[in-house]
Amino acid sequence: MTVLDTPLSFMRGRPLPNRFVLAPMTNKQSALDGTVLDAEVNWLVRRAQGGFGGIVTSESGVEARGRGFATEPGTHSDAHIPGLTRLADAIKAEGSLATVQLNHAGMRGYRAEERVSSSDDADTGARALREDEIPGVIAAWASAAARCEAAGFDGVQLHGAHGYLIGQFLSGTLNRRRDDWGGSPENRARFLFAIIDAIRASTGPEFQLGVRLSPERYGQDLFEITAVVERLIDERKVDSIDMSLWDAGKFPDDERADRAPIMRHFLRIPRGAVRMGVTGRIRTGASVRAALDEGSDYLAIGKAGILYPDFPRMLLQDPGLEPEWLPVSASYLRSQSVGDGFIEYLTTWKGFISDEAPPEGSAPFVSAWSDEVHGIKPVAVGAE
Ligand SMILES: Cc1cc2nc3c(=O)[nH]c(=O)nc-3n(C[C@H](O)[C@H](O)[C@H](O)COP(=O)(O)O)c2cc1C
Predict the structure, then answer these.
(1) Which of ligand 1's atoms lies nearest the C-alpha of 244?
(2) Is residue 32 exposed (0-12), middle (13-18) or buried (19+ Cβ within 10 Å)?
(3) pLDDT tens-digit profile of 100-147?
(4) What is the DSSP letter of 162?
(5) Which of 20, 21, 22, 26 to mutate to test the pocket of ligand 1 (most atoms within 8 A of CB)?
(6) Dist. CA 131 → ligand 1 center (Å)
(7) Ligand 1 within 6 A of 212 CB?
(8) How many Å apart are CA 96 and CA 258, to the nearest integer?
């Protein structure tokens, strides 16, 4: 028995049964209208069966124009509730905590003509949200969270990472507004904190709320994001904070920051009962140990969870685990409950799949395989 298989309590709701959480991963296995389909359920349930105590879904659009991908799950309509209920029931039947990642893609929405953002953006064609529209967008996050609660999910995680709409407001470069929603770091964070308040007002006292943030790239500033994390902790309105780091052990890009692993910059902040997890290149026994030693309450696992649905069990059995790594074959992925829609998507992640060329017209997310970059999606992406 190690800390890895002990439960983690939260300020609200059910505890996480162990310290392994499947990181949110878009898998493009839902219907075009956002209805959850079997393949999405199967992929996640297999990971719950493999010992992931927490399952976070793919990003899911809180508004139709905020969907990042045509076939991601939707949370923007009551019509999504039955599919979401099936997913929540199936995850919870395996004993895992079930969380939906809520997102608004903003300028990265796949519906090019409807893109909105904090400010106008010439590259993507997004237009700045008018001041009088912003309360409606905040209300959409709250309604989406209420739908997830009605469907039986334990909670939601707000996607504030990777340069989507929350990140577009937080950013000092992308957000050039002159009203209350732009300018100072406090003003740029207003959108995130208003969403949190709106969700707390629209959901019950036991509903869990988490926030995911990127502290660098995507127009973010390490020190500003540190201040956001400190405020999230002080206000105690969120139960968990997930730092998306792409490589939790690397040094920050910002030369003003100490030469310490980037995860330490966040894990060292006193956080009381607010839980914190880190993500990025945690895939071996040694990297799991390092993140726990730095004080991470749980580990959010991405690609290792795609390759190895039983990753938690494998690691509990072999604390020195060093699993085989990428690339892998499509048939291997199929055998691990990764459906064809997801496999097709993974062919656009260069270096992932060994035996299939990227589909005609698709643009890779990254110009070369690199774990650390989940680049801004090119605007003219083939099939989408
Ligand atoms: C195929 C794929 C899809 C992803 N989709 C999302 C997503 O929907 N939301 C999100 O916050 N992160 C997403 N990520 C990032 C992962 O959650 C994770 O942070 C990243 O893969 C780094 O962790 P890892 O080294 O364990 O893979 C995605 C990653 C992959 C590989």
Answers:
(1) 19
(2) exposed
(3) 999 999 999 999 999 999 999 999 999 999 999 999 999 999 999 999
(4) T
(5) 26
(6) 32
(7) yes
(8) 37
Of 6-20, 109-123, 237-251, 363-377, least confident by mean pLDDT is 363-377
Q: Is the CB of 305 under 6 A from ligand 1?
A: no
C-alpha distances in Å from residue 204, one per residue of 12, 154, 234, 241, 359: 10, 11, 21, 19, 44
Sequence-distant contacts of 348-356: CB under 8 A, at least 24 apart = 351/326, 351/327, 352/326, 352/327, 352/328, 353/327, 353/328, 353/329, 354/327, 354/328, 354/329, 355/329, 355/330, 355/331, 356/330
Q: Rounded to the nearest 5°, which phi and psi values hold at 243? A: -95, 115
Is ligand 1 within 6 A of the CB of residue 30?
no
How far apart are the CA of 302 and the centre of ligand 1, in A? 5
- Domain annotation for the chain: domains and CATH numbers: 3-341 (3.20.20.70)
- Which of 281, 237, 283 has the alpha carbon at shortest distance from 370? 281
Q: What residue's CA is closest to ligand 1, atom 11?
A: 24
Give 214 Cα–ligand 1 centroid separation in angstroms: 12
CA 315 to mean position of chain CA atoms: 23
Q: Which atom of ligand 1 is nearest to the CA of 162?
A: 11
Mean pLDDT of 247-266: 97
Distance 165 CA to ligand 1 centre (A): 17
Between CA 12 and CA 250 the distance in angstroms is 32
The residue type found at 165 is: L
Query: Does the C-beta of 301 come closer than 6 Å to ligand 1?
Result: yes
Whether 159 lines ligand 1, by a CB cut-off of 6 Å, is yes
Query: Residues 6 or more apart from 63 whose CB is under 8 A from it?
Result: 76, 104, 137, 140
The whole-model pTM stands at: 0.94
Tens-place pLDDT, residues 185-213: 999 999 999 999 999 999 999 999 999 99
